[in-house]
Amino acid sequence: MGNPLDIEFETMNGEKTTLRELGDSNTNNWVVVNVASACGFTRQYTQLQEISQQDGVIVVGFPCNQFGAQEPGTHDEICDFTASKYDVDFPLMAKLEVKGENQNQLFTELSKSTGSDGHTGDIRWNFEKFLVTSDGAVARFSSRDSPLEMV
After folding, report:
1. Pairing relation of β-strands 129-133 and 29-35?
2. Considering only CA atoms, which of 85, 5, 70 is closest in space to residue 34?
3. How confident is the model at residue 1 (pLDDT cuts 50, 70, 90)?
């Protein structure tokens, strides 16, 4: 598995970046999550925002509309919704695909990890979460797992 911290993806502004570049010298843990605004798990934004305030942790959200078309909004609509409803101030990246033929390379790598439930492979639903440490190790968490149990 390649180091997920160094795989490029696009910001909402169309610029290329990596998880490592989004962090700083104090970042030890990156929480990567595919998000959606109209999902039963959308309330997890509250806990994701809470853990994003911890020292050494950065949460990075990746909007995805592949599951039940639950993230149909534009970038501005997504940011406005998450800020107004959940006070989200952690970075949200460009909308992307987390599975299938057009799967983003970051999620190709993350999908190789095995979750605590034994699942390896395709992302199964919105709010599947990955904890990536500074050495590139990945821990996988299902949509049902609380973000507060991750770090």
Report:
1. antiparallel
2. 70
3. low
| Residue 50 CA: distances (Å) to CA of 28, 85, 139, 150 | 16, 14, 19, 12
Domain boundaries, the chain: 4-12+26-149
CATH number of the structural domain 4-12+26-149: 3.40.30.10
**List 35, 39, 59, 131, catalytic entry:** 39
CB atoms within 10 A of CB 80: 13
pLDDT digit string (tens) for 53-78? 999 999 999 999 999 999 999 999 99
39 is known as an active-site residue? yes
- Would you state the structure tokens that stand for residue 106, as one six-digit string? 């970051």
100, 28, 22: which is closest to 61 by C-alpha? 22
Query: 151 exposed, middle or buried (CB, 10 Å; 0-12, 13-18, 19+)?
Result: middle
**Could you tell me the strand order of the sheet in which 57-63 lies?**
57-63, 29-35, 129-133, 138-141
